[in-house]
Design a protein that fits this description.
Radius of gyration: 32 Å
Largest sheet: 3 strands, antiparallel
Structural class: mainly alpha
Number of strands: 5
Helix content: 40-55%
Number of helices: 16
Strand order of the largest sheet: 1-2-3
Shape: elongated
Order of helices and strands: EEEHHHHHHHHHEEHHHHHHH
Distance between the termini: 76 Å
Strand content: 5-15%
Length: 413
């Protein structure tokens, strides 16, 4: 256990002595300067403090030091003397309550995430700011989380011209609250040091607050007949609608490739598109690697949108993947009306490929479908098995063989 003693040593130029607290811990001595000063009249000839007022003030400081050490408990033994002194200085200065701007911290962490994931966290930071103005991490408790959850459900949708979310239908609650939990846990890992007994963020609000399970999303998969109708649709002359049709077909035939991955896709290597799925590349040991064989049915579209640097020249028309995706989905709404599909979305291509591959018409096993969608492997066996891309390519070929690809007449972007 650390011991403390008030003392003075060297005389200052103005004739006073600074009173310091001597800290002895693990037989190592360090000293903490105080804001107390003594004159020669306050001291004995042996430089012991005799002024009663100063003695009382020193005892108060020493008592605070003891209380700080008592709060550390047994973990104090793991601290070096220098570490203990730094902790004492911080808390004696009134900095004992750790402060962290949670919103700013979330935004900083979002900078190191993939583009899509980072945008999700920036969205949550913006919602938190609208909800509370500013948030210190120590203010995040069970009550705060419950109120924020309710705020998410009631707040008008910022993207839909402030239309309110239908009652009982708030899929973003799960996603946004999960972001808060992830950043809160990350802050605890970064700023707490349990081995040294330093717990700056003691709260664990998510041990009590349970995030609601996300409701099953509406079915977005199209039937074989609906996909065929998209392939056969004649071009209308409406550039956005016609462009959306091509992108949908490209995604479907490339095993549901996301728009961001298609936007950045590099050149084919011997007919194979190799890329790392940006949505999960930072969370996967294998960097979410994906390899897709470009089947012959895509040759016309490949040529139509070819580029000298990337696989497609979409980046020359759209400044970023977000505007690219928005343009596709706007065009798909127009096309969906023609084939009788309400609110058709780009992601339906991915859902459709998986559903058709698993159907009786093709009968691809679920494990292969999962691999083809680039889902993470979770079994120990998967660690020892190298992925056979040919199995995935065969599955895609079987899916695409269900369709008639003879439709022609593509316009230029």
């Amino acid at each position: 256990m650390a011991t403390f003693k008030a003392e003075v040593q060297n005389k200052r130029a103005d004739g006073t002595y600074n009173i310091r607290i001597r800290v002895t811990h693990n037989r190592v001595v360090r000293r903490i300067s105080t804001n107390l000063y003594a004159t020669g009249d306050d001291l004995t000839k042996g430089l012991k403090i005799k002024n009663v007022r100063l003695i009382v003030q020193c005892e108060e400081l020493i008592q605070k030091c003891r209380e700080i050490c008592n709060a550390l408990g047994y973990e104090i033994n793991a601290l070096t003397t220098d570490e203990l002194v730094e902790d004492l200085k911080m808390k004696l200065k009134g900095e004992g309550r750790f402060k962290l701007d949670f919103i700013q911290y979330m935004r900083e962490k979002a900078k190191n995430m993939s583009e899509g994931t980072g945008q999700n966290y920036r969205t949550v930071a913006n919602i938190l700011e609208r909800f509370s103005g500013n948030v210190d991490i120590l203010d995040i408790n069970y009550t705060f989380l419950k109120n924020f959850e309710a705020f998410i459900a009631k707040e008008p949708n910022q993207k839909l011209k402030n239309k309110k979310i239908p009652k009982g239908d708030c899929p973003s609650q799960n996603r946004y609250m999960s972001c808060v939990r992830a950043i809160h846990n990350q802050a605890k890992l970064e700023f707490n040091d349990e081995d040294r007994g330093i717990i700056r963020i003691p709260q664990s609000p998510f041990s009590r607050f349970k995030i609601k399970k996300e409701a099953l999303s509406r079915k977005r998969a199209l039937t074989v007949d609906q996909i065929q109708r998209i392939i056969d649709l004649p071009y209308s002359g409406k550039k956005r609608r016609d462009f959306a049709k091509d992108c949908f077909i490209l995604s479907f035939a490339l095993i549901g490739i996301n728009s961001v991955d298609m936007y950045y896709a590099g050149k084919l290597a011997k007919g194979i598109l190799k890329y790392n799925r940006r949505k999960t590349t930072t969370r996967r040991v294998d960097k979410a690697e994906m390899q897709v064989k470009a089947e012959g049915c895509l040759s016309y579209l490949m040529e139509k949108y070819q580029d000298d640097k990337r696989l497609f020249r979409f980046y020359k028309k759209y400044s970023n993947p977000s505007t690219f995706n928005i343009a596709i989905n706007k065009g798909l709404k127009m096309m969906g009306e023609e084939i009788g599909v309400d609110d058709l979305e780009y992601y339906a291509a991915r859902h459709s490929w998986a559903t058709i591959a698993r159907s009786a018409a093709v009968n691809i096993d679920k494990a292969t479908v999962s691999e083809a969608l680039n889902h993470a492997n979770n079994t120990v066996t998967d660690i020892y098995i190298d992925k056979d891309w040919q199995v995935i390519w065969n599955a895609n070929a079987a899916v695409l063989a269900l369709f008639d690809w003879s439709a022609v007449g593509y316009d230029v972007l």
